[in-house]
Write a structure and sequence with these properties.
two-stranded antiparallel ribbon; seven-stranded mixed β-sheet; single chain; 9 helices; about 240 residues; alpha+beta
């Protein structure tokens, strides 16, 4: 017998929620119900405050991973949804239910959800995904199966967002891992103010267009590779 098709959260409902500062979660992978969350304290990562450590800069410059955007959105979501111990928080489990995963795949098909993938040869070894609208990207989850692959994906996301003219990177909940990368915690009211300003205008281009422009720019600069260009831009502002 085939498993029942999860009930989707309509794209317009998801986008309305995110534009209002609210996002869905579930209690487990198999949970059919979703609940809506608006944290009192919100984690954001200022685009000019990303902390690019020496070791991360070195890894970026090596171009060890091939980094893509939207090359396999579904695989990134499924990798993030697998229950696993969290090396930074000591927790396990997942809030990404089948219904939520299906809803984000549908939102991706409508152009409002994106993934950043890290590949080692032809293996997907890390990445992240989130929701995009106006000049906002709401990061949902990330995963890593190789040395600092999720950090590389986040560094690329920051560089892509800056090139596209985005202004707000929402990380939802603060963790020690995010704090080490430059994330800060703000009040709900502060987040709402930043969200409203970020939604006041459109970005210069889409995230996939910014990714393509960044790769192209690296070929015509002294950086000579995308990773080196990103490392240079992030270490200059961190």
């Amino acid at each position: 017998m085939h498993a029942p098709t999860p009930e989707l959260i309509p794209p317009d409902v998801l986008l309305l929620a995110y534009r209002s500062g609210i996002f869905p979660m579930a209690d487990s992978r198999e949970d059919d119900e979703v609940f809506w969350v608006e944290p009192r304290r919100r984690a954001i990562l200022p685009l000019d405050g990303f902390h690019c450590s020496r070791s991360l800069a070195k890894l970026l410059k090596q171009d060890r991973y091939r980094v893509t955007i939207d090359a396999d959105f579904a695989a990134v979501v499924e990798s993030c949804a697998k229950p696993r111990p969290d090396p930074h928080e000591g927790e396990s489990g997942t809030w990404i239910s089948h219904a939520i995963a299906a809803s984000y795949r549908n939102l991706h098909a409508h152009g409002h959800a994106h993934s950043v993938e890290c590949w080692l040869d032809d293996r997907l070894v890390g990445g992240l995904y989130g929701v995009s609208f106006e000049r906002v990207f709401c990061g949902e989850s990330m995963f890593s199966r190789a040395d600092n692959a999720s950090k590389v994906a986040l560094a690329w996301l920051v560089a892509i967002m800056r090139r596209a003219g985005f202004v707000l990177l929402d990380c939802q909940f603060m963790t020690g891992h995010l704090a080490s990368l430059g994330a800060v915690e703000i009040t709900r009211d502060d987040y709402q103010d930043r969200l409203a300003k970020a939604c006041d205008a459109q970005p210069a281009c889409s995230l996939p267009q910014a990714h393509a422009a960044l790769v192209q720019a690296s070929a015509s600069t002294s950086a000579s590779s995308p990773g080196k260009l990103i490392a240079q831009s992030l270490t200059q502002t961190s």
